[in-house]
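Postdoc handover notes: sequence design on the structure in folder B. Input C-alpha cells:
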C-alpha cells in the first residue's frame, strides 16, 4: 500500500491534476465525506487527510509514504526539529525530491497603512510581530539585524496590527486582496513559496518502484 498525505483545500485541489497524471483518481470528495482515509481507483494507493502542519510529521514517521505541503510548513517543521530553514528537509529525514510549482504564494511582512516601517527599522525600534511562522520570522529579522518580539498566532494574523496586538505580521500573500481589505500594506517580501513533495526515506528504499512511478508522473505533470 502507498499512502499519500494531503490537506483539504488549496493543496488538495491543486494536487488533483498531478494525481491524475499518475493515473490516480480519488474516489471520495474531501468536502463532503467524513472519512479521513480516502480510497482511489488504484487499490494500492490511499490518501490520508491531515492538517497542513501535520503532513511533514506523518511522512517523517512513516504514517504516510509521501505527502504534499507548502515550503512554509516544511521550513517551520525543520526549525521545530532544530534545523535551520535551509536544512529543514534534510535534518528531519524527509526526502524532498520536487518543487511541484502549485499553491504558489509568497511570505511577506505587512503593517497597518500609515505605519512607517522603514523609519522604525532605521531607528532600531523593537517591533512586535505576530505570525504563525515564528521560525521563518525569527531568522528573517535576525538576518536584517532588526529586534523583534514574536507573538505566535494560529490564524487571522491580519487582525493583529488592527487591534494593536502587534506592529507587523508575517503571513502568506497571494493576490494581496486580504491585506488590502484589512488596510494593511506589504513592506518586505521574505521568500517565494510553493508546494513540495516530501517522501519518507525508508519507504523510498522499500517501495522504490511504485514511489518512483508517482514521483516521475508528478514531475512530468507539474505546471
Ligand atoms: P490573498 O488575499 O490572495 O493575498 O491570500 C491571502 C490569504 O490566503 C492569507 O490568509 C493566506 O494565509 C492565504 N494563502 C494565500 N496563499 C496561500 C497558499 N498557497 N497556501 C495556503 N494559504 C494561502
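Designed sequence:
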Amino acid at each position: 500500500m502507498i499512502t499519500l498525505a494531503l490537506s483539504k483545500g488549496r493543496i488538495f485541489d491543486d494536487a488533483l491534476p498531478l494525481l491524475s497524471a499518475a493515473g490516480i483518481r480519488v474516489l471520495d470528495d474531501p468536502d463532503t465525506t467524513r472519512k479521513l482515509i480516502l480510497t482511489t481507483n488504484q487499490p494500492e494507493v490511499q490518501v490520508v487527510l491531515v492538517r497542513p502542519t501535520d503532513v511533514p510529521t506523518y511522512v517523517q514517521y512513516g504514517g504516510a509514504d509521501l505527502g504534499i505541503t507548502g515550503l512554509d510548513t516544511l521550513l517551520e517543521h525543520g526549525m521545530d526539529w532544530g534545523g535551520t530553514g535551509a536544512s529543514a528537509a534534510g535534518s528531519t529525514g524527509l526526502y524532498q525530491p520536487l518543487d511541484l510549482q502549485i499553491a504558489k504564494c509568497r511570505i511577506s511582512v505587512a503593517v497597518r497603512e500609515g505605519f512607517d516601517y522603514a523609519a522604525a527599522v532605521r531607528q532600531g525600534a523593537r517591533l512586535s510581530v505576530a505570525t504563525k511562522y515564528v521560525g521563518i520570522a525569527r531568522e528573517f529579522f535576525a538576518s536584517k539585524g532588526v529586534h523583534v518580539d514574536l507573538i505566535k498566532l494560529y490564524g487571522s494574523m491580519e487582525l493583529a496590527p488592527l487591534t494593536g496586538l502587534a506592529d507587523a505580521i508575517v503571513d502568506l500573500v497571494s493576490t494581496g486582496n486580504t491585506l488590502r481589505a484589512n488596510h494593511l500594506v506589504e513592506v518586505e517580501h521574505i521568500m517565494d513559496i510553493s508546494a513540495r513533495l516530501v517522501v519518507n526515506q525508508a519507504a523510498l528504499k522499500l517501495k522504490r518502484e511504485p514511489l518512483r512511478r508517482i514521483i516521475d508522473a508528478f514531475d512530468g505533470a507539474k505546471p
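Context for whoever picks this up: The first strand starts at residue 2 and ends at 6. Don't rerun without checking with the PI first.
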